[in-house]
Specification:
This protein has 317 residues and is of the alpha/beta class. It folds into 2 domains: 8-110, 2-Layer Sandwich (Nucleotidyltransferase, domain 5), CATH 3.30.420; 114-288, Nucleotidyltransferase, domain 5, CATH 3.30.420.150. The protein is built from 11 helices and 13 strands. The protein has helices spanning 54-71, 85-88, 93-104, 113-125, 163-170, 178-193, 211-223, 237-243, 249-259, 267-281, 293-302, and strands at residues 8-14, 18-27, 30-40, 47-48, 51-52, 76-83, 109-110, 132-138, 143-149, 152-159, 205-209, 232-234, 285-288. The strands form 3 sheets. Strands 10-9-8-11-13-12 form a 6-stranded mixed β-sheet, sandwiched between helices. Helix 5 (163-170) packs across helix 10 and helix 6 (178-193) crosses helix 10. The longest helix has 18 residues, at 54-71. The radius of gyration is 19 Å and the shape is globular. The termini are far apart. The mean pLDDT is 92.
Length: 317
């Protein structure tokens, strides 16, 4: 029977690189995406000496107020707003939250790294079968890695780098040179060696989440003439993709604009992170999940009894 109305919920994800407004139809314990609007705010680029500048806080306010205006056209049951590394990994989190709430009227839930990884897992598990493996979410300011077995979380960690922070900290021009690529790779390796639960572990498949891996998937499909709907990247192809970004900067720019125009400066750093992690766990392929942290967050908010056994405040290394 066709429904005459929709029960809609909104989720705003304040990330380090992008801020997204997503609207979902909720029916019979499932969520169905209706709208996904993205603004590339680049909040991580406004962090100076660990503190978000007033200009960065105002940028977040401007985007959130724009979304508030958009939501006037949708009869939402409720709106949820959360932030990840964008507000978690700064020294003036409380100041930023107070200013944003005063300016926009919105209350923001700042997720811990473990919560972010957990919601990634909940979202992915609702869209694909997860038995045993590792999940990777490369954001703008942090990277989450989660190991699961028999469909349950075993360990998770949030690492203090992402595609945008790697660009800001290591890249002097639009794209990283050979030396800068090596620096990004070495930083990833250094942080991975600190993660005890990954020590000498291998995984055939990495479940990928987030815009960086999605952009790499689009690049993969374009270069290897795969169908647009293909969600799998063979790990051996990632170094080949990175080789495409060598040489003349204008030529590299043309290639990036073709597949990911909104991630011109973060695509290559994100792919280097992905390649380094995949080599570290010796995976064979990366499978992109259609759902991630936003969907997992909404599932937990609306159907929390299903996930009450998960300790969402736990932090693991």
């Amino acid at each position: 029977m066709r429904r005459e109305f929709f029960i809609m919920y909104g989720v705003i994800d304040v990330g380090s690189n992008t801020i997204r407004l997503c609207i979902y139809d909720v029916s019979n314990g499932e969520i169905y995406p209706m709208l996904n609007n993205k603004t590339t705010a680049g909040l991580a680029g406004y962090v100076k000496k660990g503190k978000m500048t007033k200009k960065g806080i105002q940028k977040a306010c401007d985007v959130l107020n724009k979304y508030k205006d958009m939501m006037q056209h949708f009869p939402l049951e409720q709106l949820f707003v959360f932030a990840t590394a964008s507000l978690r990994n700064i020294s003036n989190t409380d100041e930023a939250l107070q200013t944003i709430t005063a300016d926009t009227g919105l209350s923001i839930d700042v997720l811990t790294g473990y919560q972010e990884a957990t919601f990634d897992f909940i979202g992915a598990a609702r869209s694909m079968h997860l038995n045993k493996g590792v999940l990777l979410d490369i954001g703008g300011g942090s990277t989450e890695i989660l190991v699961y077995e028999r469909g349950e979380i075993q360990n998770a960690v949030s690492l203090p780098f992402g595609s945008l922070s790697m660009f800001s900290n290591h890249v002097s021009s639009l794209f990283p040179n050979k030396k800068e690529k090596k620096e990004i790779e070495e930083e990833v390796k250094t942080e991975l060696k600190k993660v005890k639960f990954l020590n000498k572990k291998t995984f055939d498949t990495v479940i990928g989440i987030g815009g960086s891996i999605r952009a790499a998937k689009n690049m993969n499909n374009d270069m290897f003439e795969m169908p647009r709907e293909n969600n799998r990247i063979f790990a051996d192809n990632v170094p080949k993709l990175l080789k495409e970004f060598q040489g003349n900067e204008n030529e590299v720019l043309r290639k990036v604009l073709k597949v990911s125009p909104d991630r011109v400066h973060t695509l290559i750093p994100g792919m280097i992170v992905m390649d380094t992690v995949c080599k570290y766990v010796k995976c064979k392929d990366i499978l992109m999940s259609p759902y991630g942290v936003r969907e997992g967050y909404l599932y937990q908010k609306l159907f929390s009894k299903q996930y009450q056994t998960m300790d969402l405040k736990k932090e693991n290394d």
